[in-house]
Model the fold of this input.
Amino acid sequence: MSTLAARPAEAASAPRPSARRPKPRGRYTGWLFVGPFVVVLVAMLIVPIGYALWLSLFRDQLVGGNQFVWFANYVQLFQDSAFWQGLGRVTLFLLVQVPVMLGLALVAALALDSARLWGTGFFRIAVFLPYAVPGVVAALIWGFIYGNQFGLTGAANDLIGIDLLQPFSASWVLTSIGNVVTWEFLGYNMLIFYAALRVVPGELYEAAELDGAGPMRTVFSIKLPALRGPMVIATIFSIIGSFQLFNEPNLLKTLAPNVIGSSFTPNMYAYSLSFSGQQFNYSATVAIVMGVITAVIAYVVQVRGTRQENR
Done:
């Protein structure tokens, strides 16, 4: 009896376990992995964008120096004909060059995936190789080819006796630049499409063959639907690249100074304003507006492409 009576007393006097939960181990492990990326993102993207936005709200006045003018620079930009002409030029470039480039890349990827192309390895390397060439070198190569006096174009005109080919004329210069960009990035987009085609399950092709589907039916029913996602990604990258057009026209400007001016594209205009005109505030305004336009168009393309892919 004494022993049984002592047990409840001992249980009552025993210390209760702490109500606090133990801290989970590895709580900050994720930040150790994400931290370097966050630091680079803030330092290389968020801070420059914030600084450009801050600069765009100021203007260097003749009297009073650099003053806060709110959105006066944006009002001036929307009335700037040079900016709108450059924006219209790159928009036309986008509407023509991007479909041509992506269409050729799609045909090349389908040809590689068909396994009917002779020398597939060589063809794949040959199409992708121009992407490995730096953009500056590519522009210089094509600038020599386009030269009317010393290049391949000049030799062809001398051969036929008339100046038939004029790549640097006002009516053909945008097409010439588009040809350079297509030559550079065709292989890059082809590789995106080809990689997507290689992961299509083989069972789909076997089922299509058993159902009597021919090569063209297989392309339209299996391969093209599998490329909707990669096509959206490639289109977004191409839109961003088109609005950022700078290297090719800037390098070819020395060969066609009367056709390619300092405001030929919005990026060239911002560069000229900043480094030649010392108008840093107005240049930042151009950069901010172009960034917003590019982001909005890319977002619309992404949303529409995602909706079609989910159907």
Observations:
- The chain has one domain: 73-310.
- Residues 73-310 form a domain with the MetI-like fold fold (CATH 1.10.3720.10).
- The first helix runs from residue 2 to 13.
